[in-house]
Amino acid sequence: GAPHRRKRAFDPVDRIFTSPTGAMSPPPGVHLGGHPASDAMYGTTTAADATMNERYFSLYAKGKTPPGSSTPAAEARDAGDDAPQRKWNHLPVDSIRAEFPALTDANHDGWAFMENAGGSQVPRRVADAMHHYMCNNYVQLGAGYPHSDRADATVHRAHQLVKTFAGVRPCSAGGAGGEVILGSSSTQLLATLASCFDVLHSVGDEIVVQRAGHEANIGPWVNLSRRSGAKLSWWYPGPNGNAGDVAELERIVTKDTKIVALCHVSNLLGEIIDLPRIVEVIRTRAARDCQIIVDGVAFAPHRPIEVDEWGVDWYAFSPYKVYGPHVGALFGSAKALELVTGPNHYFIDPKQVPYKFELGGGSHEGGAGLVA
């Protein structure tokens, strides 16, 4: 999206747009049912789809948070706590803004970039690091000479930094272990992951997909169900409008459920899903090797990621929406990575993870930007 001048107020936490008069309206482009492209992809819209917008926006218009959901603004409001505002008042806003060329350059004067859901601006150091890498170490990896050694180190550090950011603990430290795969976006990485499951699923298996999630973690699993013949079950919001309704999940998850794809924060609604509780339900009711695949893109810019504590199998997020270069990241637990083989070149050993999943290699200069 193009940048917009300040014409409408936007609460980035509750995901509610209001006109200057305060009237409620859905965000532009939000279609939870009745959209031609959605109908063509997923079939005819159901009654649950058709009422989802009305249900959510009526709840928020009344100043209520749907049961089982949470947002930072709602938490502060319900507690009667003004601590978040006090913290904001003491932030060194001017010095923070000075780190971002897009916010200080005269060419951008008067513009408010409100498309951070599609990508955040980057600090100058990120651009400088990528420029330096491309001017000094933009060479083949693994070639054994000094420039290549420095390039190797940069890409390795990028993976290690993202693993730390995601809360990955090695098995030797009592964690579940795992790796972080880097790619062009979460959308690309999740589509690549779904293709790796083709040989593992067939008629009789079940795939559960959360309806209130992002297309990035919906389409790949819809397509997998079509290719494999596995049954597709939609996880709809509950009767009170909460996207992470536990009772609804318990109703549809069975011992044949092999995949559950969900979001950590609904990008449509702003609701923070109770991920530990959801994981517990799935582990209790689904197949023993069921894969829990989480879209954490809308969570990562706001809260710490702790994949090891949550016990998920896969967790995707986008560093380019957290002030980094245009790079996507996908965590895979050690156990989950044993189930699938990455689609990179046949001559790459399947044990070479994450490289086996990084088709043609990741963005080396993007790695430099990540560790800036």
How does this structure look, described?
The chain has 372 residues and is an alpha/beta fold. It is 36% helix and 12% strand. It is built from 15 helices and ten strands. It has helices spanning 36-42, 47-61, 72-79, 83-89, 93-98, 101-104, 124-136, 146-166, 186-196, 219-228, 246-252, 275-285, 307-310, 334-337, 364-370, and strands at residues 9-11, 16-18, 24-25, 178-183, 206-210, 231-235, 257-263, 291-295, 314-317, 328-333. Strands 4-10-9-8-7-5-6 form a seven-stranded mixed sheet, sandwiched between helices. The chain has a three-stranded antiparallel sheet with strand order 1-2-3, covered by helices on one side. Helix 13 links the parallel strand 8 and strand 9 (314-317). Helix 7 (124-136) packs antiparallel against helix 15 (364-370) and helix 8 crosses helix 15. The protein is globular and about 55 Å long. The two termini are 26 Å apart.
